[in-house]
């Protein structure tokens, strides 16, 4: 048995080239048939190597190839839909030296 909290600790990686996509934030379940439909993965892209932008990628369950000890391997078949995440108050903290 696998719990959602244990899945959230695993990295999501493309099986073709080993690129890390991000970490699992949520799953979508069809409660009528009792099956997982999609994985929702939070990514962080860097702009000019410094500033991060958070997005969520929805990966269909059919693209999940293997759930390992440390990673979830998914196949890269087409573009996954992305959703922009609005920044939270705690994410906008400024750092001083």
Automatic annotation (TrEMBL):
Q: Which domain of life is it from?
A: Bacteria
Matching entries from SUPFAM superfamilies are given as:
PRC-barrel domain
Please state every residue range assigned to the domain named PRC-barrel: 13-75
Designated name of the protein: Sporulation protein, YlmC/YmxH family
InterPro entries xref list:
PRC-brl_dom, PRC_barrel-like_sf, Spore_YlmC/YmxH
Matching Pfam families: PRC
């Amino acid at each position: 048995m696998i719990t959602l909290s244990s899945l959230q600790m695993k990295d999501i990686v493309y099986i073709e080239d080993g690129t890390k996509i991000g970490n699992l934030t949520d799953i979508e379940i069809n409660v009528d048939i009792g099956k997982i439909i999609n994985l929702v993965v939070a990514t962080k892209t860097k702009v000019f190597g410094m500033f991060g932008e958070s997005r969520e990628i929805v990966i269909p369950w059919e693209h999940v190839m293997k759930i390992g000890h440390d990673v979830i391997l998914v196949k890269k078949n087409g573009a996954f839909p992305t959703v922009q995440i609005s920044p939270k108050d705690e994410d906008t903290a400024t750092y001083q030296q």
